[in-house]
Amino acid sequence: MRGVVAAGHPLSAEAGARALRAGGNAVDAAVAACLMSFACESPLTGPGAGGFMLVHSAGGESRLLDFFVAAPGLGLGAEVQAPGALVPIGVEFSSEASQVFNVGASSCGVPGTLAGLDHALERFGSMALAELCGPAAEVAREGVELAPMQAYLHRILAPILAATPEGAAAYEPEGRVLRAGERLRLPELGDLLERLGAEGPGFLYRGDVATALSDWVLERGGLLTRDDLAAYETLEREPARARYGGREVLTNPPPSSGGILIAYSLALLALLDCPGDPRTVVEIMERANAARTEDFLVGLHAEGYLERFLAGEAIATAAGEAAVRLGGTDPRRSSMASSPKEGGSEPTRTSRLGSTTHIAVLDSGGGCASVTCSNGSGSGVIVPGTGVHLNNMLGEHDLNPFGFHRHAAGRRIPSMMAPTVVLRERSPEVALGSAGSNRIRSAVLQTLLGVVDAGLTAEEAVARPRLHVEAGTVDAEPGVDPEALDALEAGGYGVRRWAEPNLYFGGVQAVVRDPESGALSGGGDPRRGGAAVSAG
Q: Is 4 part of a structural domain of the chain?
């Protein structure tokens, strides 16, 4: 077997597997799958998005490639005093759950996906960009038949996708939302992908498309300048590292927040005796939630913050406090977290989609790639003639919890995305990541524990029931230990027991190499229509 690919859509996974069969490595496959995801998962990702790729090469080098969205505004004149107003649009997930997303030109940050994928291929790949762009361009032009999950995403995001004439023309060509079984065709995206293969990404950062993007956004009250696009570059970072279960876990470092919160959680779990117990997982999640203060978000940009945040003394203190609580001496919740609702009433919960997708690849040569990309919820700003739907990262509340438009121009916006790789004896055992906004870190953590502690395959670990805790409420899928949930309820938590698995709990894609047999397995998250494909 040449390798295995897990992705958010079957065509994305197959594109990656095709690259492996052609002799490519894990990074070639990851880039191929990402390009295909532009056509197959366009509400979630695309050339107007940003992301991260964690690479562990066959030669043993580990690097985090940061091509996430940057805050715009470089070179703006003194006459520009403030960005235009964000445009709030309500999205109905169901009859019980809704959320307001902030979109429009004022929400658009500097996109990074094209620069990042090109950098990854030049740095670690072996195939030509044109060879990988061709299949994605063809699918974008011919169209993708919407599966039920994709049709659901199109339906709930329709107020954003069709908010402008350009969006309505692409996503509602018959004057209504496309249904399952119908085809979404994006010919301008196909043209962009073909041009990307022929020229590289320069046209989006310094050429005619850069001019078109900047002019369109500035005219509508946004901040995206030609200087922003020309200055954008992919950054290479040392991964954040944690030890757990005899393995080394590599994940996304600052200025992003999701990876180091996962590393923090693993460091606490490593000091406790019952890491798989739901009560323990909830306790650790609460402590990670409480650690995400305003000082934390400011500190992410400070030199040496990662080392200070994961300092041994602080971890030992937090683990000791958790152990006391789990021992039952304090039946109520820690004062570190917010108070649960009284009287066992229905917990208040804000549902957040997290319009993100992940791809994970292991190859037979010992290399792996884990890449997460996101368009936020999409800004609704589709620039005519370019094939680019810009992100709304400046309007995403989860990324701006203490206020909008507070990031300095050119600075990376902190993200919860956490592409992760687990090394066992210096060789990749697991590559994984997730969609899901604030649930990214809980989904990645629980899937990782399923492999490392329970010895599950990738498919089993991804499908295993999950829980998530936020603001005093534990949300739990069916299959989570009911006695543990009862104990959490008795301890003061609100507990919401879901009737079925749901995309609320993230969209994990994972690949695993069995340490004994060397067999490869892949798990595409059924909650989001994911798929895994082996390359024989």
A: no
| Least confident piece of the model among 40-54, 75-89, 104-118, 411-425 | 75-89
| 283 and 426 within one domain | yes
Q: What is the mean pLDDT of residues 170-174?
A: 94
Instruction: Give me the pLDDT at residue 79, please.
Output: 54
Q: Where are the beta strands (DSSP E) in 412-530?
A: 420-424, 427-435, 467-470, 473-476, 494-497, 507-513, 520-524
Burial (CB < 10 A; 0-12, 13-18, 19+), residue 26, is: buried
Rounded Cα gap, residues 430 and 522, in angstroms: 10
Q: What whole-number distance in Å separates Cα of residue 40 and Cα of residue 34?
A: 10
Q: Decide if pLDDT at 373 tops 90.
A: yes
Nearest to 315 by CA among 273, 276, 278, 261: 261
Q: Are 30 and 155 found together in one domain?
A: yes
Does residue 377 sit within a domain? yes
Angle of helix 26-40 relative to helix 129-142, nearest 10 degrees?
20
Domain that holds residue 287: 240-352+421-535
Q: Which among 391, 387, 389, 390 has a CA at the least distance from the CA of 195?
A: 387
Q: Are residues 118 and 153 in the same domain?
A: yes
Residues taking part in catalysis: 356
- The span from the CA of 294 to the CA of 312, in Å, is 22
% helix / strand / coil in the chain, to the nearest 5? 40, 20, 40
The Cα diameter of the chain in Å comes to 66
pLDDT tens-digit profile of 63-73?
999 999 999 99
